[in-house]
Amino acid sequence: MKRFLILLWALMLCTAAQARGLQFAETMSGYAYVDGEFRNASVSLKVVIHDIDAWRRNLDTPASVTGTLVVDRLPVQPISGTLTILAPAPGDDGRLLTYRFNSAMLQFNGLKHVRDNAGTEVFDAMTTLRGVFQPVGQPAPGVQDLLYKSLWSSELHFAWWDPVVVWNFAASFDTIATPWYQVLEVQGIFVKTVFGALAHTLFPWLM
Which one, out of 6, 23, 105, 152, has a CA that is 20 to 30 A from the CA of 177? Predict the structure, then answer.
């Protein structure tokens, strides 16, 4: 019994030393301005927050992004990049989700802008991604250009009105390196950080 307790204690210490993470999938569709014309486009992304506690302490900590990009009259392209979730917007109220990813052919830089005290409008802000597709290697527009000068030419939407899309999104959430008794805590950290005061109303079982 004593040996079992020692092993259990050692296992708990090792688990506590690991960074707790979270991953989820996001699919968006809309239009992309590519080669001088607007084309239908969609992205399917896997987002990984490798350390939920580090992200909560500093929202500039990027998550990693992998997935696929589909643009009319182009081959399906694997993509990789980063997503900064809810970092403070420079010189403005609110926070930004900043997407940066590229394939072998195209690079993308874009934003979702969530204003402070957005209320239920947070759903529209969290599901509308505006940005720019460019050939790989071109100078990319900065956050200031996208946010204040509206220098975006492409728009992708998460279809929050489609129950199948919402179900798949919710079902995709999974914790990483998290013991079973901390799963709800990790999920709650994400939901409370993203939705703020609305979290208690929308997701009471996590709060």
Answer: 6
